[in-house]
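This part of the workshop introduces the protein records we will be handling. To make this concrete, we reproduce a full record directly below:
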Amino acid sequence: NRLLEIEPNDLDTYFELVDLYMQEKNIDNAIDIANRSLNIFPNNSKNKETQAMNNDFTNNNQENEENKASS
Protein backbone atom coordinates (compact mmCIF):
# COMPACT_ATOMS: atom_id res chain seq x y z
CA ASN A 1 0.00 0.00 0.00
CA ARG A 2 3.03 2.26 0.09
CA LEU A 3 2.49 2.79 -3.62
CA LEU A 4 -0.89 4.34 -2.87
CA GLU A 5 0.74 6.81 -0.52
CA ILE A 6 3.04 7.88 -3.35
CA GLU A 7 0.44 7.85 -6.15
CA PRO A 8 -3.04 7.96 -4.57
CA ASN A 9 -4.68 9.38 -7.70
CA ASP A 10 -3.28 6.93 -10.23
CA LEU A 11 -5.85 4.29 -11.13
CA ASP A 12 -3.17 2.08 -12.71
CA THR A 13 -1.46 1.84 -9.31
CA TYR A 14 -4.63 0.30 -7.89
CA PHE A 15 -4.79 -2.20 -10.73
CA GLU A 16 -1.13 -3.12 -10.25
CA LEU A 17 -1.73 -3.73 -6.55
CA VAL A 18 -4.78 -5.88 -7.24
CA ASP A 19 -2.72 -7.94 -9.69
CA LEU A 20 0.10 -8.28 -7.17
CA TYR A 21 -2.24 -9.41 -4.40
CA MET A 22 -3.91 -11.89 -6.74
CA GLN A 23 -0.53 -13.38 -7.68
CA GLU A 24 0.15 -13.78 -3.96
CA LYS A 25 -3.32 -15.34 -3.51
CA ASN A 26 -4.13 -12.56 -1.07
CA ILE A 27 -7.77 -12.22 -2.08
CA ASP A 28 -8.87 -10.08 0.87
CA ASN A 29 -6.33 -7.35 0.09
CA ALA A 30 -7.10 -7.55 -3.63
CA ILE A 31 -10.80 -6.99 -2.87
CA ASP A 32 -9.96 -4.15 -0.49
CA ILE A 33 -7.84 -2.33 -3.09
CA ALA A 34 -10.46 -2.93 -5.80
CA ASN A 35 -13.14 -1.44 -3.55
CA ARG A 36 -10.95 1.55 -2.77
CA SER A 37 -10.41 2.22 -6.46
CA LEU A 38 -14.17 2.03 -7.04
CA ASN A 39 -14.76 4.59 -4.32
CA ILE A 40 -12.07 6.97 -5.57
CA PHE A 41 -12.75 6.57 -9.32
CA PRO A 42 -16.47 5.64 -9.50
CA ASN A 43 -17.02 6.90 -13.06
CA ASN A 44 -13.89 5.54 -14.68
CA SER A 45 -14.67 3.01 -17.42
CA LYS A 46 -11.84 0.72 -16.24
CA ASN A 47 -13.65 0.36 -12.95
CA LYS A 48 -16.57 -1.40 -14.61
CA GLU A 49 -14.14 -4.27 -15.13
CA THR A 50 -12.96 -3.86 -11.54
CA GLN A 51 -16.52 -4.06 -10.24
CA ALA A 52 -17.17 -7.27 -12.16
CA MET A 53 -13.84 -8.73 -11.02
CA ASN A 54 -14.53 -7.66 -7.44
CA ASN A 55 -17.93 -9.35 -7.48
CA ASP A 56 -16.34 -12.56 -8.75
CA PHE A 57 -13.60 -12.44 -6.08
CA THR A 58 -16.11 -11.78 -3.33
CA ASN A 59 -18.37 -14.63 -4.43
CA ASN A 60 -15.45 -17.06 -4.78
CA ASN A 61 -14.04 -16.03 -1.40
CA GLN A 62 -17.41 -16.56 0.29
CA GLU A 63 -17.75 -19.98 -1.31
CA ASN A 64 -14.26 -20.95 -0.15
CA GLU A 65 -15.05 -19.85 3.41
CA GLU A 66 -18.30 -21.82 3.37
CA ASN A 67 -16.50 -24.89 2.08
CA LYS A 68 -13.87 -24.59 4.84
CA ALA A 69 -16.58 -24.25 7.48
CA SER A 70 -18.43 -27.34 6.28
CA SER A 71 -15.27 -29.49 6.15
Remarks:
- DSSP finds four helices and no strands in the chain.
- The mean pLDDT is 80.
- The CA atoms of residues 11 and 37 lie 7 Å apart.
- The radius of gyration is 13 Å.
